[in-house]
Amino acid sequence: MRSSGTPLILVPGLFGTKENWIRVGKELSQRLGCMVFAVENRNHGGSSMAPSMTYPEMADDLVGFIDWVRKITGEEQVNLHGHSMGGKTVTQLATTPEYAPRIKNLIVEDMSPLGYPLKRAEYLDCIKHMIATDMNKTRSEVMAELGEKVSKVLLYQFVRGNLGEDVNGKAQWTCNLNVIDETYIYLLSHDIRFGVFDGPTLFQRASGSGFLPAAHKARVEKMFPMVKFAETAWSNHWIHADDPKFFVDSICDFLEPADELGQLGRKAMI
């Protein structure tokens, strides 16, 4: 892995883990010639378990990691990417004046800075199923049980990434389910309506997911005056998993344009 160039930090969404980003992270590192880091949000994986998880809190957490990356790489700025909940976290961070100078380029994957009136019932159902699961079983037994209840294949896969085993071989969740359950509606509905990030910004959009509505385009453009949009019709909400070629290509075109205009251009949200 080459380590020259501005480092890139990948921030997952809800239930996202570092392991979800190994494939695309390696490809981005090779193509961009930089170090790529994937983090885990609070109440996930190896990160701290906390009684709350607001966007300002998660932005503060992320700044600490960014400063560590700046220290070990010697770079003053980083390129920052966030997916879903992570996308709203990086939006919160980039539009906070004291944090913004750390960011060279911002990339938001299929997430609006504004909230939603929808509760996304499939996600709520998934969380409820996870909480209700009898954990006095092996990991494989728990996954078999959840496989009958969680309908979305990708959602099932991300849930699987949050299931480990204790020293006795019994299944255990590696995320803080109770706090996630308590804050889920906040995480989806929270608005980031104020602040501006003047740096180059890319919003990646899955046209059919509904997480980045066309009606939010004007607000995005106001908050991010240098924004570009890249859209795929071949993906659901998890672009990096559903359409990894588009995901990697659009980031590389954005960060390293092939000519003065770049290959990406500015695309309208339909």
UniProtKB/TrEMBL annotation:
- Specify the AB hydrolase-1 domain's residue ranges: 7-108
Q: Listed GO cellular component terms?
A: mitochondrion
Q: Which named protein is this?
A: AB hydrolase-1 domain-containing protein
State the Pfam families in the record.
Abhydrolase_1
The organism of origin for this protein: Caenorhabditis tropicalis
Going by the entry's taxonomy, the superkingdom of the source organism is recorded as: Eukaryota
The entry lists its GO molecular-function terms as:
carboxylic ester hydrolase activity
**SUPFAM superfamilies associated with the record:** alpha/beta-Hydrolases (SSF53474)
